[in-house]
Design brief:
9-stranded mixed sheet, two-stranded antiparallel ribbon, alpha/beta, about 260 residues
Length: about 260
């Protein structure tokens, strides 16, 4: 898992950076912007990690794999073509990362490796203050007559930087309706978290908090229609638990130390 073509890194900024992990399917400009804002709020650097999807490459190597398009019809999958397409997408990611980070005066670096987003998102970047695993959320279309409700999942396990990250995220929703589902090791949020959530109630059009027992989380995530816009998860969660959350959510997942 050796990075290819990294940008020149500043060791002072890279001691404990914010890390954003994406692949061809799971990133958006909004996710990059959020990563830059979190890095700026923490006064640290930003490391971008683009994953060449090894699962897709394995499928392309199978003799019966076919690609069906509206223009060229049915044809065999070509590994070289897929890799070129991934590299082109990675370059787009790198360019937008550079533009967005430089605009906010955030030091950045870029790496390209082969692997799986869910696995690397749980295992890579143990030195990072915050890791953002880009995913594309699916939501059914809602009539314009109804106000959009943004949903955030928080799994708190005594993380030092959780409040700062949550504060940065909630600023994006000012004037909107937000629902937070809080899963905590304690029976009630710690005082700083409780204060932050109370402050959010005053800035948002409507703000609600739902508390969920830890042992109910897996069943809830497996339920149909239980989607979120963002998830913030403590880095203190066991690796198996982090992987399960990454596998069962369709939104950007932010892990914090």
């Amino acid at each position: 898992m050796k990075p290819a073509n990294p940008e020149p890194a500043n060791s002072e900024h890279d001691k404990a950076p914010v890390l954003i992990v994406v692949d061809t399917e799971n990133y958006s400009p909004a996710t990059i912007q959020l990563a830059v804002e979190i890095a700026a709020s923490l006064q640290t650097g930003l490391r971008g990690l683009f994953i060449e999807n090894e699962n897709l490459l394995r499928v392309a190597e199978l003799p019966f794999s076919r690609e069906i398009t509206s223009t060229s019809g049915d044809r065999p999958l070509n590994v070289a073509v897929i890799q070129r397409s991934m590299r082109a997408m990675a370059n787009q990611f790198k360019e937008y990362l550079a533009q967005t980070a430089q605009a906010s005066q955030v030091h950045w670096s870029y790496h390209y490796i082969c692997g799986s987003v869910d696995k690397i998102g749980a295992d890579y970047g143990q030195d990072a203050i915050c890791t953002i695993v880009g995913k594309t959320v699916f939501r059914q279309s809602i009539s314009r007559r109804y106000r959009r409700i943004f949903k955030v999942l928080i799994i708190d396990n005594d993380s030092l930087h959780l409040n700062n990250t949550l504060q940065t995220l909630l600023r994006k929703f000012e004037g909107e309706e937000v629902e937070v589902m809080l899963v905590s090791e304690q029976k009630s949020p710690k005082v700083p978290t409780a204060s932050l959530l109370q402050d959010a109630r005053q800035k948002l059009v409507r703000f609600s908090v739902i508390e969920l027992e830890k042992n109910q989380l897996a069943a809830f995530l497996a339920g149909a229609g239980n989607t979120f816009d963002y998830a913030i998860v403590s880095r203190h969660e066991p690796t198996d638990s982090l992987r399960a959350i990454l596998n069962n959510t369709l939104c950007p997942v932010i892990t914090v130390s």
